[in-house]
Amino acid sequence: MKTAGFIGGGRITRILLNGFKNANVSFTRISVHETSEPVANALKVDFPQIETSGTDATEAASSDWVFIALHPPVVMETLQAIRDSIRKDALLISLAPKITIGKIKSVLADVPNLARMNPNAGTYVNKGYNPVCFAPDTDKNVIREFLDTFEKLGKVPVIPENHIEAY
């Protein structure tokens, strides 16, 4: 079983966590790094199995799957701050618009498994439409495992990166 880490605990993290819960997708550990204590506490009420941290992103960043669930203006500085915690075999999934795989790669040059995803609210009830694109050197087994999991939450078309903003 995989571990999942979320850097950011806002709306999209809640949507994905609820989708996982509804689809009976389980992880060995789910860590959420959220700096807003009220947001983290509300997540913990609805998803008591998660571990939350507002001060240290290390645990979330060292997961098998690391979701970057932040607004674009803080993504690059956050990647700089957590880059030493991200394992080389992890899959980093950015949920932020506008930050390309190339920009992510400029900070995480040693992490080959990178993706961008644009999940929608239907994922909350496992009727999502969640387009995703992967870096060219992402391990095919990592991609397959990710798609197999996310297909339980709705449709997951693999698209070219230059189309992701259209969704």
Features:
6 helices; 167 residues; 19% strand; single chain; alpha/beta; seven-stranded mixed sheet; two-stranded parallel sheet
Description:
With 167 residues, the chain is α/β, with parallel strands linked by helices. Helix content is 33%, strand content 19%. The strands form 2 sheets. It has a 7-stranded mixed sheet, with helices on both faces. Strands 7-9 form a two-stranded parallel sheet.
Question: Quick one: overall form?
Answer: globular
Strand order of the largest sheet: 3-2-1-4-5-6-8
Helices and strands, in order, run as EHEHEHEHEHEEEHE
Radius of gyration from the CA trace?
14 Å
Spatial separation of the terminal alpha carbons: 30 Å
- Poorly predicted regions are none
